[in-house]
Write a structure and sequence with these properties.
The chain is about 45% helix and about 10% strand. The chain is built from 16 helices and 14 strands. The protein has a 5-stranded mixed β-sheet with strand order 1-2-12-9-3. Helix 9 packs antiparallel against helix 10 (about 180-205) and helix 14 packs across helix 16. The N and C termini lie far apart (about 55 Å).
Length: about 400
């Protein structure tokens, strides 16, 4: 490879230096090795796809399946045999078609839109709680609790149950790096039991919430969701809805702080919040990689033939910075046309909660800018820590200095 960026080693994708700034490596790969052999943290080899056109095609390629993907000795799911993996992300047609149809019947746009006033209220309450503080970790105090509260509302977790639900959810999806595999499995078992009890309650006493609607979703041809499928969908909504939104808010605010001209442009024209959030999704995608796929027959991308049975990783962050598709891809522009970005995937596995995630990001960041006339990074960017792992792209903390806008409550 030419230039100063070396070809990444098998372990580089998990190293802190790479996590801090992966984009020069992505550029090098797109230019010289667009389909590149890597090794996953599990030790298994996989093929990494980095160019936009290849990535978009791969995400919609039926020859790249998900239903039989194995990660190490664990089938489909990082929590071993805990039964929470019977959901959309681990299914191929016709099973995926059945699940998607049943879930879509309950997860209707009107239900998502109906959450808008409550999301505004949650954002306001969280910002009220830090109103007397001049320095704050925005991840811990705002980006983290907001989507967790919204998921609680969406699933119909009663107020008296929310502290337990949120504690277990935090333990499961935000375990410290030194947490052992056995500890993670124990947390998953506790959470799965909690969700089963919650599903039983919703079947017995349905309410006006998504989990009750999922429990009651039936189709003449497709039947209804089993108990394990309901538990798995509740888990997927938590995992996908929580992780991506935390990172959308955190990465989005961080991008604004690193580009003060764009922060000023958004303040001057608040109506730009919708394209601004799309640019945040493109520029610092909350998910760096799509979830694993496996070639069911030989497939060719970027001039490289991937044999049947091999694992494939689609680089969402890499594809979203591809200059072959996006003008000035490493520039951050809140008024940019980002049509076609892959932050929420593409094809049959396009994120079902994309509308909700966008709404949360728009409300959260819009309210933050409305309430505070000045927001400044309270750390050297080089000292910020990024989340470990290949899948997630997000900051562990975002310390900021805040000044309230006069007369804003």
């Amino acid at each position: 490879m030419s230039g100063s960026v070396r070809q990444p080693s098998e372990t580089e994708f998990a190293e802190p230096a790479f996590m801090a700034d992966p984009y020069p490596t992505y550029t090098c790969l797109r230019d010289e090795s667009p389909v590149f052999r890597i090794k996953l943290p599990s030790g298994l080899p996989a093929w990494f796809i980095s160019r936009y056109e290849d990535a978009r095609a791969a995400l919609a390629d039926p020859r790249l399946g998900k239903g039989n993907v194995r990660i190490g000795h664990q089938n489909k799911f990082p929590f071993g045999d805990v039964p929470m993996h019977e959901h959309l992300l681990h299914a191929d047609p016709p099973k995926h078609t059945r699940l998607r149809k049943l879930v879509a019947r309950a997860f209707v746009p009107a239900r998502v839109e109906g959450l808008r006033p409550r999301i505004h209220q949650i954002a306001g309450e969280l910002l009220d709680a830090i109103s007397d503080r001049h320095t704050v970790d925005l991840i811990e105090s705002f980006a983290f609790p907001l989507p967790l509260a919204v998921i609680s509302e969406l699933l119909g977790i009663s107020p008296d149950q929310r502290s337990e639900f949120q504690r277990m959810a935090i333990d499961l999806v935000s375990s410290p790096p030194d947490t052992t595999a056995e500890q993670i499995r124990e947390q998953a078992v506790r959470f799965e039991r909690y969700l089963r009890a919650l599903v039983a309650e919703k079947r017995h006493r349905p309410a006006d919430d998504l989990l009750s609607a999922l429990a009651g979703s039936t189709d003449a041809d497709e039947g209804s969701l089993t108990e394990t499928e309901l538990v798995s969908m509740a888990f997927l909504l938590l995992l996908a809805g929580y992780e991506t939104t935390v990172n959308l808010i955190g990465n989005g605010v961080y991008s604004l702080l690193r580009h003060p001209d764009q922060l000023a442009a958004l303040r001057a024209r608040p109506e730009l919040i919708e394209p601004a959030v799309e640019e945040m999704l493109r520029f610092e995608s909350p998910l760096a990689f799509a979830t694993l796929r496996q070639a069911t027959e030989p497939v060719t991308y970027g001039g490289v033939t991937i044999p049947a049975g091999e694992l494939v990783v689609v680089g969402l962050s890499a594809a979203n910075r591809d200059g072959r598709h996006f003008h000035d891809p490493d520039g951050f522009d809140v008024s940019r046309d980002t049509a076609g970005h892959l932050a929420f995937g593409h094809g049959i596995h396009f994120c079902l909660g994309a509308t909700l995630g966008r709404m949360e990001g728009q409300i959260a960041i819009g309210e933050l800018l409305r309430r505070y006339s000045s927001i400044e990074l309270d750390a050297d960017p080089a000292d910020l820590r990024w989340r470990a792992g290949m899948l997630i792209r997000g900051l562990r903390e975002l310390p900021v200095r805040l000044s309230r806008a006069d007369g804003v409550g």
